[in-house]
Amino acid sequence: MQRIFLLPLLLALPLLSQNPATDWRQFRGNPRLSGVATSAPPATLKSLWTYDTKDSILSSAAIADGVVYVGVGNGELLALDLATGKLKWKSATKRFFGESSPAVAGGTVYIGDLDGFLNAISAADGKSLWTFQTQGEIKPSPIVVNDLVLVGSYDTHLYAIEASTGKLRWKFQTEGMVHATPAVLGDLVFIAGCDETFRAIRISDGKEAYKIPIGAYTGASPLIDGDRAYFGTFNYEVMALDLKSRKALWHYDPPDSDFPFYSSASPHNGKIILGGRDKFVRALNVTSGKEVWRFATRARVDSSPAIAGNRVYIGSSDGHLYVLDAATGMKQGDFDAGSPLVASPAIAGNRVVIGSQDGVLYCLG
Known about the structure:
The protein is mainly beta. It has strands at 3-6, 47-52, 62-64, 67-71, 76-81, 87-92, 103-105, 108-112, 117-122, 128-133, 143-145, 148-152, 157-162, 168-173, 183-185, 188-192, 197-202, 208-213, 223-225, 228-232, 238-242, 247-252, 266-268, 271-275, 280-285, 291-296, 306-308, 311-315, 320-325, 331-336, 346-348, 351-355, 360-364.
């Protein structure tokens, strides 16, 4: 039985009704990969429904038009009603899904699989519309920009695929596997990956606009906030890049820890917040990179935070979804799923949705 222990908050945020502006249509909620929600869950959470998928969930959910979409390890893409948890349909690709999370746009759900296929599936009935095959695993999540689906592959390429037809528009080759989900700002798409390079690529033609050496393998997807990019690395540090000067602004290297950062960052009032494999959730000052606060979990934190109002929602491999005060890092709530939470929470319609490694999808609100 799942248990919820929640500490009362001094101030409850107002509830917002479900509408397209409050959807969570892709990994991290938006093309900048901020993880910032426009819909606020209640101050005191309770379990509204669960759905047992019978396999592991590493993929983070997408929520669009009152429907939750999530990829399961056995290759099933599920669509469930956000209000009730009732299964609307399941689409069986017969290929395993890993960490790639669905993106929803124009009545279509896009998701990558471990056989290297980008799948386009009808959001209405789960029928396959088209597939595009790369030559490596797709662990990054796709994002949709205008008429293109952008997705990276372990075959070292970033692909731009026509959303309606599945035809290749362009591809860009890096010098290593593309693991991180691309981020978009304006007419540029940004990737950081296994070639120790941060790249800005023009969406229009797939040509490189510029690159910044970062000197580290990067598994975390970059946050683009204003003219800066923030991300953690496997060199045990967090980096901030100035996209105008195209230089590193600062490096945060915990003096007492040599663990990678796999969690993506979220911004909040002059801070970025992210998890680390040293079991901590941290907030860093965006100007100096100095630590503002840290919160200790009991296992590594690969889950990326979602922020709603002044609260941070983040999973840990200790099986808990933590609710933290974004200003201080103080714990406001704690949901015990009983199994590692590697996926990241999605927030829409005043609800939090997250899947566990033992295959249960939770909806809290």
